């Protein structure tokens, strides 16, 4: 990176925590480094997606059952500033101290469970996931974020396919190719750089004549990750509940081949999505 600009600066900029000269310096750096600018944009989109998923939860009241009995007596009755209930003595000091302690513990508990809340919103239900499963769930979440975009679903359009392939191949450190799905009714509209488990991923977006979109996400897996056959991951939880009744469920077929992970995600019925995944696999084998 440019002298004096570090990854922590980029994170702070993405979070809106920089001002003045430092902000100007980071903006100058990003203007000269489009890859870094794309990464910052991706961080911001991910943060916005998390806010959309979690802000409603954070605004919910703490369930009464989660509070100790000492804090139940005030429920449904007015309290004075000193904790005095109508027609009752003030709370003893030890009770007020207990309330403060319990509130602190509750805050810690909320912080510790935010990850699981997000996990549920994106369809999580298990404690430990295999690398391929984690990747597939990330691919589903990524598709849910970018596929609805009308103006900016991709960073590089299909008209610049050669540049797109060269850029993503360089970032992933492996030679990529763009599968041709036109015979199956889907044409490439472009691609973008993504993030999967802290590393770069390539996202290719396809569209049918009726507007249905698919995304193919690829990432380098850890060396030695076992190859897999085709496996399916469905979107559940809040993401699935928000889909209109009667629409095909959002799912992804994923597989790992020679340390490269593939996940094809979209709102298609299972057999058709599997056929498309097989076409992608065959074209990569032929390449």
From TrEMBL:
Q: Region annotation Disordered: residue ranges?
A: 65-89
Its transmembrane ranges are 94-118
The UniProt keywords, alphabetically, are: Membrane, Transmembrane, Transmembrane helix
- UniProt lists compositionally biased (Basic and acidic residues) regions at 74-88
Determine the domain of life of the protein's source.
Bacteria
- InterPro entries, alphabetized: Anti_sigma_zinc_sf (IPR041916)
What this protein is called in its record is Transcriptional regulator
**Organism lineage:** Bacteria, Pseudomonadati, Pseudomonadota, Betaproteobacteria, Burkholderiales
